[in-house]
Amino acid sequence: MKRTPRPRVVETLARADRPERWTAAAPARARRLGAELARALTRNELVLRYQPIVDLRSGECRRVEALLRWRRRGASVAPAELIAVAQDTGQIGALSRWVIAEAVRQWIAWRERGLVLGIAVNVAGPELADPGVVGDTVKTLGALHIQPGVFTFDISPAALLTVPDVRGALSRLAAAGARFALDGVSPADMPGRTFARGIDELKLSRSLVRRLTTEPAALHDARALVEIAHDLSLSVVAVGVEDAATRDLVAKLGCEFAQGHWVSRPLAARSVAPWQRLAVGLAFGGALALATHMGATRAAGSGPGSASAPRQLTGFLPTICSLDLPLARARTSEASAVEQISERAGRDMVAVRAARADLFVEATVTGTDRTRIARAVDRDAEQLERDYGRSFARRPAVYVFATRISFATGLQRLFGARATDAGLLAAANGGVTLPRYGAVAINLENVPADRDLAIVRHELTHALVHEIVGPDAMLPAWFDEGLATLEERTLRVDDDATRDAAITLTLLAGGRGDLAALGSPTQWVTQNAALDGKAYTVAAEATRVLRERVTAEGLVRILEETGRGTAFGMAYANVGGESLADFERAFPARLSSQYGQARIAVRPSAEGVRWSASGFAPGAAVTVEIEGAAYRVEYTATADRYGMYEAVFGGTAPSGEYAIRATGRGGRATASVRV
235-249, 325-339, 385-399, 490-504 — which one is most confidently predicted on average? Predict the structure, then answer.
C-alpha cells in the first residue's frame, strides 16, 4: 500500500524552525543578562525542552536531548548566548547543576508513568573542571541505581581538547553509568583513536548535515566521518535532519540515529509520551515502527504469544488504522459478513458458532479443529470474564488462519498492514490483538504444538485488558505480557510455576531480566530475544508478585483507574502504596524471598508422584534421599542450569508415606509424599 506523502508544509516548518543564531552580546547586555540569569535560577524561569533522537533502523525513539530554554520576558535569549553569559559571569556550574537535576527529575517522572527513555544533556566544558559539579553529578547518578547508558553527556571537540583534566572527569562520570557523545563534529574534528577514547557516540554537526543534499564535498566528508566512527566502534547521530531527503541520505550513509526538526521539534515534557505514540510512524514507518503500535511480537519457537495494538493512528500508519470490520456494522447478516471478510482477507473463511465471540476460521481448517477452536474461545472468554469480574463490552472477533501465508495476506487485506510488516509478523508471531476493534488474529502454523490453544487465551487477555484501560492507555510491556502469560498458565494444570520462578531467579542473578528494561513495548522484541524468549516468563513472575501484593481485586482497580485517564504508574502507586519504580527495584528480592531457598514441590502424576527440587546453584550436585517404612534410596543428581532437579517417584515403590530430601549447594529441602 502506498503511503500518503507527508505534506510539504511540514518540511517548510521544519526548515523554518532551526535554532536561533546570535552574535556576541554587547558588554552592557551581557552584564544585564548575567544579573537576570542569577535571578532566573531561583525563580523557575528556566525550562528544558526535549528533542527526540530516533533510531533510523527501526523508527524507535529511545533517547531525547534536553535543550535549555529561558522563559524571559521581552526578547528571547538564544541558547548559545545563554551558555556564553553563564560562562562569562561564572554561573556555568550553577546552571549545569540545575539542568542535570531537572533532567533527572523528569526522567524519574517519566519512569513512574511507564515511559522508558534515555536523556542526553549538553555540557559546555568548563563545568567539567569543577570537582564540585562532577562530584554532585556522580552522587546523583549513583542514587538512581539505573542501568548504564541512561544518561548521555554531549561534549564538544574543543572542550575535550582544552578543559583541564577533562579525561579524569569523564572517567568519574563513566564509572557512575554515564555515556558520552562528541557533539557538533565537522571534518576539522576528525577523531583519532586516542582522541575518541572514552567516547561512545559521534554527532555530525548541524551545518554539515544541512549541506548533504546540495554539496558533494559535504557528502564526502560525512561519509568519511561515519566510516571513521564505525571503525572506532562509535554510533553516529545525524543532527539537523530537516527534510525527508536528508533523512534518507543519512540512513544510507550508515548513521544509526537522527535528530532534527523533521523528526520532531523540541517538546515540552508532557508532550513526549503522546509524540512517541503518534509521530514515529509518521516520520519513519517500518516493521519495528509497526511493532510500536501493534505491540511486541513473540517468536514461534518460544511458544504462544501476541502482539497488542493499543493505539489507532488514522492517517499515520497504513496498518490497523484502515481496519473496518463488516461484522461491526449494524444489521449485517452473518452470511454477508462472511462473504465480505472472505473477499477482503483473500481467503475463504467460514463462520464457526461460538457462544462468546464472533469466530471466523479459514475454510481449509478441518471441522474437528474448528470445533476445538470454538471450544477454546468460549472456554477462555468465560474464564477471563470470571477472573476480571466483568464481561466483554462487545463480543470479540476472532480470525483464525491456517498458514503463515494466509495470516500475512489477511493482515494486509483485512487489516491494511503493509506486505513487509505482515510478512515479519507472520514469520514470528502466533497471533495479534487489535484492542480498538476487539479483534484477534491467530496464526495456526506458528503454534503447531499448542494442544490447549493457549494462544487464544493469551490474545483474549490482551483484548479484555485493553478494553478496560482503553485503547489509548500505555502499560509497561512486562505487565501487559505478564497478565496474558499468567492466564496461559492456568491451562497448565500439572504445573505449579516452580520452574518459571527458578528461570527468573537465575536470569536476575545473572544481571538479566531487569523490569526497567522490559517496560518499553518498542524494545520488547529485542529484550525477549536477548533473554532467549524468556522475557514472558520474567514478565509473568513479576505480574504474579504484583498481583499478590495488591490482590486480584486491587489489580482490577489499577486497570480501571488507568482506564479513567490516570497514568498506569500513578494508578499502581495509589493502590500499591509504592511507586512503580520501587516495585521494579524490589521485585528480585521479593521473588527470592518466595523461591530463593531450597524447596521441593510435589504434584500428582500418572506414574506416581512428580517432584521438583529448586533453589540450588545451577549445575550443582544434589544428594537425594527417599525414605519410607522398610524403604530407603540415596543417589546424587545434578541440578540443571536453573538450579532445579525433577523426577518421578512411586511407580515401583510400595504404597505408603515417604520423605524426600534434597541437599546441595543452596540448601536442604524436605517434602512428604504418599504413593
Answer: 385-399
